Amino acid sequence: MKIGVPTEIKSMEYRVGLTPDSVAELTSRNHEVYVQAGAGEGAGLQDTDYLAAGASLLSSAEEVFETADIIVKVKEPQLNECAMLKEHHTLYTYLHLAADKPQAEALCASGCLAIAYETVTSPYGGLPLLQPMSEVAGRMSVQVGAASLLKSGGGAGRLLGGVPGVAPASVVILGGGVAGENALQMAIGARADVTIFERSLPRIAELDRVYGDRCKVVYSTKAAVEKAVFEADLVVGAVLIPGDAAPKLVTRDMLPKMKNGSVMVDISIDQGGCFETSKPTTHSDPTYEIDGVVHYCVANMPGGVPLTSTYALNNATLPHLLRLADMTPTAALAADEHLRGGVNVWNGQITHEAVAKALDMPFVPYTS
Question: Which H or E run includes 194?
């Protein structure tokens, strides 16, 4: 199988689809890997590393798309990349289509088979290819939130953990999944006053059992969330409905009642954001202010730590990629219902029900 890795072109995106170690795994199985020259440099991975692993270097993304059967990326293809996709291609990457109808339409028009990391499931529950980036984003959310609380970051000038004699900042985390739990760990470690909201009773019990003596674990209702947000210094939005748009838990009319100089970090921005006033930002210009509240809504947060993120992502994505290459995509999907859960676009149609609903587009189940 011919596998292609183009350079990521989304603003300030430094991750790369495959590490040299992953390339070596593929080439050892007699697959051909084509990497765009310089694709790994943002993550500290040099062309010489890829050559040593058995890859061939190509000078442009156009050459990669023309040569490869499977395209491996990190972020969703931009529209000019969608135009390079053909019917014979299998695209393997994050897509987040629920908040991006133009991309969904472009992928349908290409005729390709598009597998989204974020909707591949696991026999043990959860979303295993989303998990590593949720872990990174959750941990980063507290770091960037603390920086945004600095006066120089546009915030109130509050230290997250306080000091003896001065109270710590109040951190509110909306969502107790993978991202929310990792944000919780970092906020507790910073000695903040932390409250985490969740709706699943088994998950609430689990979080309380592990962290209950170091934070407040609260059932999420509109009234409880509002009260906590109004008193918060930092709000982390970490809500996920697989494949669907994120619900808006902080509305526009709540902002004037929040603390001046407070900060909101929206991890859910890839799925449209869980704050009504969220709009995607980039690492080069990550924040904006509305009604005295600083918003951090970078749509590719893990791209800010590309070395960590690239290796963490490959740990999760490589096993499925090996099956796609070894068996052919059609055979691998026929054999693995959990990998089939990742098929979002096939034969010009949306094949994930939640995505189709969010986009108001027809849903056609994938059939191998």
Answer: strand 193-198
**Do residues 37 and 51 share a domain?**
yes
Across-strand partners of 57? 35
pLDDT digits (tens, 9 = 90+) for 192-202: 999 999 999 99
Amino acid identity, residue 216?
Answer: K
Last residue of a domain, one of 289, 304, 319: 304
d(CA 100, CA 311): 27
Residue 125 lies in a domain: no
Q: Which residues, in sequence order, are CB contacts of 212 under 8 Å at separation 6+?
A: none
Helix, coil or strand: residue 256: helix
pLDDT band at 113 (very low <50, low <70, confident <90, very high): very high
**Which residues are annotated as catalytic?**
96, 270
Q: What is the pLDDT of residues 9-61, one digit of tens each?
A: 988 899 999 999 999 999 999 999 999 999 999 999 999 999 999 999 999 99
CA-wise closest residue to 40 among 24, 59, 56, 20:
20
End-to-end Cα separation, the chain, in angstroms = 19
- Given 257, 286, 304, which residue is the final one in a domain? 304
Q: How confident is the model at residue 170 (pLDDT cuts 50, 70, 90)?
A: very high
3-state secondary structure of 111: coil
Domain of residue 113 covers: 2-120+306-359
Number of domains in the chain: 2
CA distance 239 to 245: 10
pTM comes to 0.87
